[in-house]
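User: Fold this; tokens only.

Assistant: Input:
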Amino acid sequence: MRPRLSYLRGPHRDAISYPYKHAGEYADEPYFACASAMHGIKPFNPPLDNRLQVTTPNMVEAVMDLTLGDLRVVKQPAGGKAALWAGPICHFCGLAPMDTYFALADQLRDEMGLDHMDPAQFQAKVMTPNAHHEQAVTE
């Protein structure tokens, strides 16, 4: 089955996806969902403590040990219950929390003999829950 460009650029785009961070940019995850459904691939929903990827939004506490390969994150949405998430990959959405992100990045860069990145050259951004607008993180 060939992909239809109308899904990416035409009138179906706004029905499938939504504008993302920058002008003209659309979220790609809805396209993966559509493609999976078109090919009969059922959703995979592993337990929270055995995920492929853990994300940082709603993170209130974390253990991120690169040496041991230990990644455990306590997440608690506003008004929700705290839950333990774990997995091998961490996605720092919008680079937040920046202090944790750069501490881990510096550790990896030290191991490779690379200079540290300058956090002042980066601005963490998160998507607000409504309308997917950018909002600078103030930590």
